Amino acid sequence: MGVIVSWALFHNRQQTGLDDKKLHFEPLLRDRLTVIVSPQHPMVLTKWEGKTSIPLSELHGLSLLTSNRKSTTFKNVERTSGTKVNFKQVVALGSMEAVKKAVELNTGVAIASHFLIQDEVKKGRLLSFSIDDVSINRYIMLVHRKNVSLSPVARAFIKKLKEDLIANYPKLYCGFSGQTGSNSNI
Question: What's the pTM value of the predicted model, to 2 decimals?
């Protein structure tokens, strides 16, 4: 099909190793990174109860759960804040679903996409906190090769995807209804 929907740090695509001169990137949804914890986590019970934002320094000494060892998510948070955090341990679990489940079981904290954890937060299984003075936004991107005519199936998929995103996530949607950008044949 030639179409990818991807998570990307919008202003730092060069890290992907992709030749973006040959690719068309269209942001579809805005997303932000948050700290997620179990409602029973000791920090919630002692310091974070009733808060919506926490200082990055309060993560010192906690166990950080990640989806993989090569994840740059927390490095981006540290670089943006100028603060280095020393965790008790960093555990790679293989997927964000595994991370969410482990956080629900109160085995550590994680930095996660707000978009990915909003159902668990609504159901009370996870709590989400912004980080004081740090805001890292990401985008779910539509990516396809420039100057290549997309198939009717690909165009139908993109149209349906955008309709669903607009209907289900109107506050997060950042694309243009029915369009994928000025370089596109869609």
Answer: 0.73
